[in-house]
Design a protein that fits this description.
The complex is a heterodimer of chains A (208) and B (250). Chain A is mainly alpha-helical and 208 residues long. Chain A has eleven helices and two strands; from the N terminus they run H-E-H-H-H-H-H-H-H-H-H-E-H. In chain A, strands 1-2 form a two-stranded antiparallel sheet. The longest helix of chain A has 30 residues. The two termini of chain A are 27 Å apart. Chain B folds into two domains: 68 residues, no CATH class; 168 residues, Sulfite Oxidase, Chain A, domain 2 (Alpha-Beta Complex). Chain B is 23% helix and 23% strand. Classes of the chains: A mainly alpha (208), B alpha+beta (250). Chains A and B meet through helix 3, helix 6, helix 7, helix 8 and helix 9 of A and helix 2 of B. Chain B: This is DMSO/TMAO reductase YedYZ molybdopterin-dependent catalytic subunit. Chain B: It holds the Pfam family Oxidored_molyb. Chain B: It comes from Streptomyces pseudovenezuelae. Chain A: It is a multi-pass membrane protein.
Chain lengths: 208, 250
C-alpha cells in the first residue's frame, strides 16, 4: 500500500480521533443496522421477497438484529472516551448554529462551516438516528408481542415502523454517501487517526 | 462542562458556552414524534391510502407500489423456493372423508363450469386491492363431485410449495363465494400469485386464499393452517377477526 499518502506522511502529522471503543461501537452498530436493512428489504420489496422467501427465518433474523442494535452503544458507555464523545455530540455551541445556517443555504464556504470534534450535521444525525432507532425498536416490539397490546396498536405501530424505515433508509443512504466522499473521515473510524491537515480543515475548532 | 472547551481554554469563543444539549432534545423530539405517529396512525393511514391509491393508478413507474400501503399485491412465501407447475404436471387431489377421491389436471378444472367474482382483496397486514376479478370452479362443486361423507366437518388445503396449509369448516367451504381459482385479474394466475391454481376465499383475509393449491382433504375437525398455528385466527372473516375492523369484502 505504498500508494496511500497517509502511510507516506510522517506519523507526527496524524492526530488521534477515535479510540477502540468508539470504533467498535460504530462498527458493530453499522453491521447490525446493515442486517436490519437487508432483512427489511427481503421482507418488504416484492422482488427481494420472491428471491429469498423463507419469511419466518428472515423475520427472526430481523428481530434479533433489531433487538441487538442499541447494545453496542450501551456497552460502549463503560468507556470514558466514548462518553466524552457523546457529550461532544450532545452539546451545540454558537458555531454549530452558523454551520447549520450555512448548510441550509447550501453555502459551502469553509469560513461558514466551523466545527469542533463533530460538525453540527453529524450531531443532528447522531441524535436523530438514535431516536429513530428507539422508535423502530418500540414499534417493532409492539408488532412482535401482539398479545401484549390491543390490535389497533399493532396496526398503528406497523404504520410508523414502515414509514420510518423508509425515512431511515434515505437518511442512512446520505450518511454512507457522505462517508464515501470523505476517505479521511473513514480512515478516522477505521484506524482511529486522521491527518492534522484534514482535522484543521474539517474541524478547525477541534483541538485533540 | 464542555469537553471541547475544557481541553482548549484559549478558544476564541466566549468561555460561558458549555453548549446547549440540543442533541438530547433532538433525540427526545424524535421519540415524541414516533409516539405521536402511533397515536395519529389511524387517521394518517386513511389519508395516505386514499392519496397513494389514486397516485398508484396514474404511476407508470410502479414506484408507488414500493411505498408503505402503496396499493397492489405483496409477495409472501413461507418457503425458500416453490416449484413451477403447468398444464402438463399440475394435479389437484380431492381425498379424505369422501366416497370417491379424485385427481384433476388443469384441463379437467378448466372444463368445469367457471364462476367469476369481482371483490376487494384484503390482507391481514393492512393492504387492500379493490375490485379484483377471480374466476374458477366453485369449491362446493368439487366437494359434491367427490361425495362428502356424513361425519366430516372440515376441509384442509395443502400446497405444492411443501409447507403452506389452510382449512375451512365444511359449512364455510360450501359457500358460493369460495373458488378453486384459475384466473385472477382476468389472466391465468401466474406463479408469483399462486398459479396455476389457488384457493380464493372471498369473505376472509387473504391468507386463507392459499396459493399453489394441490390438495383438498375432507376431515372431521378443523386443523389450523400454517399462519393459524402462528397466531392468526382460523375463522378469518374480513373485519370480524384478527382484531381488525376493515370493511367486509363481501
Amino acid at each position: 500500500m505504498t500508494l496511500r499518502p497517509d502511510t507516506a506522511a510522517p506519523p507526527s502529522a496524524d492526530v488521534r480521533r477515535f479510540g477502540p471503543a468508539q470504533r467498535w461501537v460504530h462498527r458493530t452498530t453499522a453491521a447490525l443496522m446493515g442486517v436490519c436493512v437487508v432483512t427489511a428489504a427481503c421482507l418488504y420489496i416484492p422482488q427481494f421477497a420472491e428471491l429469498v422467501g423463507r419469511r419466518e427465518l428472515v423475520v427472526r433474523v430481523h428481530e434479533c438484529a433489531g433487538l441487538a442494535l442499541p447494545v453496542p452503544v450501551l456497552v460502549g458507555l463503560v468507556s470514558r472516551r466514548f462518553r466524552a464523545d457523546l457529550g461532544h455530540l450532545n452539546r451545540f455551541g454558537s458555531h454549530d448554529r452558523i454551520w447549520l445556517r450555512a448548510a441550509l443555504h447550501r453555502d459551502k464556504r469553509r469560513a461558514l462551516r466551523p466545527a469542533a470534534k463533530f460538525n453540527a450535521g453529524q450531531k443532528v444525525y447522531a441524535a436523530w438516528i438514535a431516536g429513530a432507532t428507539l422508535v423502530m425498536l418500540g414499534t417493532g416490539l409492539l408488532m412482535w408481542f401482539t398479545h401484549l397490546t390491543p390490535i389497533q396498536w399493532r396496526t398503528s405501530a406497523t404504520f410508523v415502523h414502515d414509514w420510518l424505515a423508509l425515512t431511515i433508509g434515505i437518511v442512512l443512504g446520505g450518511h454512507i454517501g457522505m462517508a464515501l466522499g470523505d476517505p479521511e473521515a473513514r480512515r478516522g473510524l477505521r484506524t482511529g487517526s486522521v491527518s492534522r491537515e484534514w482535522a484543521d480543515r474539517e474541524h478547525p475548532l477541534w483541538r485533540p | 462542562m464542555n469537553p471541547e472547551r475544557a481541553e482548549k481554554p484559549e478558544a476564541s469563543e466566549p468561555p460561558e458556552e458549555r453548549g446547549t444539549p440540543i442533541g438530547r432534545r433532538v433525540l427526545l423530539g424524535t421519540l415524541g414524534l414516533g409516539a405521536l405517529g402511533v397515536l395519529a396512525a389511524p387517521t394518517l393511514q386513511r389519508g395516505l391510502e386514499g392519496f397513494l391509491g389514486s397516485a398508484a393508478e396514474k404511476d407508470p413507474t410502479g414506484l408507488t407500489g414500493l411505498l408503505p400501503n402503496g396499493g397492489g399485491f405483496r409477495y409472501y412465501s413461507v418457503t425458500s423456493s416453490v416449484p413451477h407447475k403447468n398444464a402438463a404436471n399440475y394435479r389437484l387431489t380431492v381425498d379424505g372423508l369422501v366416497d370417491t377421491p379424485k385427481t384433476y389436471t388443469l384441463d379437467d378444472l378448466r372444463a368445469l363450469p367457471q364462476t367469476r367474482m369481482v371483490k376487494d382483496v384484503q390482507c391481514v397486514t393492512g393492504w387492500r386491492v379493490p375490485d379484483t376479478p377471480f374466476e374458477g370452479v366453485r369449491l362446493s362443486r368439487l366437494l359434491d363431485a367427490a361425495g362428502v361423507r356424513a361425519k366430516s366437518g372440515a376441509v384442509r388445503f395443502t400446497c405444492f410449495d411443501g409447507a403452506y396449509s389452510e382449512s375451512l369448516t365444511l359449512d364455510q367451504a360450501r359457500r358460493s363465494d369460495i373458488l378453486v381459482a384459475l384466473r385472477m385479474q382476468d389472466k391465468d394466475i401466474g406463479h408469483n400469485h399462486g398459479g396455476p391454481v389457488r384457493l380464493y376465499v372471498a369473505p376472509m383475509y387473504f391468507y386463507k386464499s392459499a396459493k399453489w393449491l394441490s390438495g383438498i382433504t375432507v376431515t372431521e375437525d378443523v386443523r389450523p393452517g400454517y399462519w393459524e398455528e402462528r397466531g392468526y385466527d382460523v375463522d378469518a372473516w374480513v373485519g370480524r377477526s384478527n382484531g381488525r375492523d376493515d370493511d367486509p369484502t363481501t
